[in-house]
Amino acid sequence: MQRVPDVSTADVERFVQRAFRLEETAAVHELLDGLDYRTTAHVRLAALELAKGDVDRLRWYLVEGRHDWRDLLAEAESSVGIKVWLSRRYNDDPAFREAVDARDWAAYQV
Does residue 50 sit in the same domain as residue 68? Predict the structure, then answer.
């Protein structure tokens, strides 16, 4: 079963401070503040994770996320799983599937 992280606005802020240079945080906040109010902290954190500290990449992911936010979540939270989920082993081997899901979960922790 895919786990869903419990993400708060404090988690998002901590990630911004950790991933971006101090002089970039105002631009990052401006981008995040421009999002639809329904965009959850969970989706925001996924975009930040994918941006890897690059404001231009963040901008790109936020635009992509407007089309379908589930794509951001899938890419950010299932980096290994999304690449192997169609494989026969992932579908047929519960232990392998659990190992892949556990690896993704550990990699996504804030």
Answer: yes
Same domain? For 25 and 5 the reply is yes
Nearest-angstrom CA–CA distance, 51 and 47: 6
Number of domains the chain contains: 2
pLDDT tens for residues 32-49?
988 886 678 888 998 998
Is 39 in the same domain as 85?
no
> Is the CB of residue 42 less than 8 Å from the CB of residue 32?
no
Does one domain contain both 92 and 63? no
Is the CB of residue 30 less than 8 Å from the CB of residue 58? no
The total number of residues written for the chain in this structure: 110
Backbone angles phi and psi of 78, in degrees to 5: -130, 45
* Cβ count near 1 (within 10 Å): 6
Alpha-carbon 98 to chain mean position: 20
What are 5-24's pLDDT values in tens digits? 678 889 999 999 999 999 99
- Reference 101, options 72, 79, 71; nearest CA is 79
